[in-house]
Design brief:
heterodimer; B: 8 helices
Chain lengths: 222, 222
């Protein structure tokens, strides 16, 4: 093999790796915080809105679900400023694209959750004198929200991986930091392996928690 | 504010379509690898005993927890250092997408096999079939239909993820788009057209899978 491993480059630059993973987590948290209400709003528009709103929302959701995230990122980071004549900070562009993207996926999750509760409960609630809004808020949504927690957990894990792509527009999360470090020190093997391991250490428990959520849902009486 | 002018990029459409062809080639190659390896892993986990299940399960969970980009970059830059041989960007893309989607595929296969009614294997063997015949004639046809929606959505995901090999220099659609953008800086028009091309590739997949599934859903026995 004849390759001399040199892990010291990791120890020397540990602070850069920490900065990277911290930025990744910040991106993920902000995105989910915006995309949960965003996705729910979109789902409700799509189920209950007037025809024009339903049509527009469906178009938006399908576009963001069927095209690559990288393409969306470039479209927003390069295309929008070109169109509108503004300049967009990379971090803002990253959060914007992530939010639009994840909201679209979340809206499908919420939609199927709401539909799975069934319209008979809503009709029963209305028959008891509630308004549609009250029926939704007090009867349908609480049940829907319980069911969608596992798929949303799945979506969180997927989104966590997607944050690595914003490296392409120079946002300083983990992937970007490791690629810059690699270019600076030429220690590809150690740096890229360490990056993969860091992602692994952070994401593996998340994936296991989601598996556990799914297992719990199967055995619960929902 | 810039005026949109789609005509200016019309002459570059052939370049973009060449990229789309490479995208399709990469998707097909990776999907073939993922299907074969994923099915093997899924069956190994379902039928191979506790030890094998645990070992493969660990591998699958690790592959699920690493971002596609991180794995791809590792395979292209770090693996050659270990193996002492250079691999082409296209091959690196096929390997990394292939084994990662094999992990996702193995979960789909496991779920499909697990969802079959349990008495069928015993009944078929009581009728005189050996294990292989039971698999081939009774279990697999049913499992395949149940796996279709999830496998279809994996395929769509795979096509979208081919955009990442842009980062390791494969001349697929995103790469061509970036090149054209360098020649004629009209990012909004270019990435809109790229989005349309991706939609043309992914939307028919979802429609076809839905059609096949709906047609065959009647034959699903729970």
């Amino acid at each position: 093999m004849g390759y001399t491993w040199d892990w010291s480059v990791i120890a020397e630059n540990a602070d850069i790796f920490v900065l990277g993973i911290f930025t990744t987590i910040v991106l993920a948290v902000i995105t989910m915080a915006l995309s949960l209400p965003g996705g729910l709003a979109l789902a409700l528009f799509r189920l209950r809105g007037p025809a024009a709103v339903r049509w527009l929302t469906t178009g938006y959701v399908e576009f963001f679900r069927l095209t690559p995230f990288l393409m969306q990122l470039f479209w927003i980071y390069f295309g929008l400023p070109y169109l509108l004549g503004i300049s967009l900070d990379p971090f803002i562009a990253a959060v914007l694209t992530l939010t639009l993207n994840v909201s679209a996926f979340n809206s499908e999750i919420f939609r199927s959750g709401i539909v799975s509760v069934g319209s008979d409960q809503e009709q029963a609630a209305i028959a008891l004198g509630m308004s549609t809004r009250q029926a939704l808020r007090r009867v349908v949504l609480p049940q829907a929200v319980r069911r969608v927690i596992p798929p949303l957990g799945n979506q969180w894990v997927a989104m966590f991986q997607s944050t690595s792509l914003v490296a392409f527009i120079s946002v300083g999360e983990l992937m970007y930091q490791s690629l810059v470090l690699r270019a600076g020190t030429y220690r590809s093997l150690e740096i890229l392996t360490a990056t993969a391991l860091i992602y692994l250490i952070v994401s593996y428990p998340q994936a296991k928690v989601v598996d556990h959520l799914y297992a719990r849902m199967k055995t619960s009486a929902i | 504010m810039n005026h949109l002018n789609f005509g200016s990029i019309l002459e570059y459409l052939p370049y973009l379509l060449q990229g789309a062809v490479v995208t399709v080639q990469l998707s097909v190659a990776a999907m073939v690898v993922a299907s074969i390896v994923g099915t093997a892993i899924g069956m190994g986990r379902s039928y191979g005993g506790r030890g094998l299940n645990a070992v493969l399960g660990l591998a699958v969970d690790c592959l699920r927890s690493i971002p596609q980009l991180a794995l791809m970059v590792w395979v292209f830059y770090a693996l050659p250092v270990l193996a002492g041989a250079q691999i082409s960007p296209f091959t690196a893309g096929v390997i990394s997408l292939g084994i990662q989607y094999a992990a996702f595929m193995s979960e789909v296969v496991r779920a499909g096999l697990g969802s079959l009614a349990s008495g069928q294997q015993a009944a078929a063997m009581a009728l005189g079939m050996n294990r292989w015949q039971v698999l081939r004639r009774v279990l697999v046809p049913q499992a395949v239909i149940r796996m279709l929606p999830a496998a279809g959505s994996l395929l769509v995901s795979l096509v979208k993820d081919t955009s990442l090999v842009f980062g390791i220099g494969v001349l697929e659609l995103m790469h061509q788009a970036a090149t054209v953008n360098g020649l004629v800086p009209r990012p909004f028009e270019i990435f809109t057209v790229v989005g349309a091309i991706y939609l043309v590739m992914t939307y028919p997949i979802t429609v076809t899978i839905n059609l096949i599934y709906r047609r065959r859903a009647a034959s699903i026995v729970s």
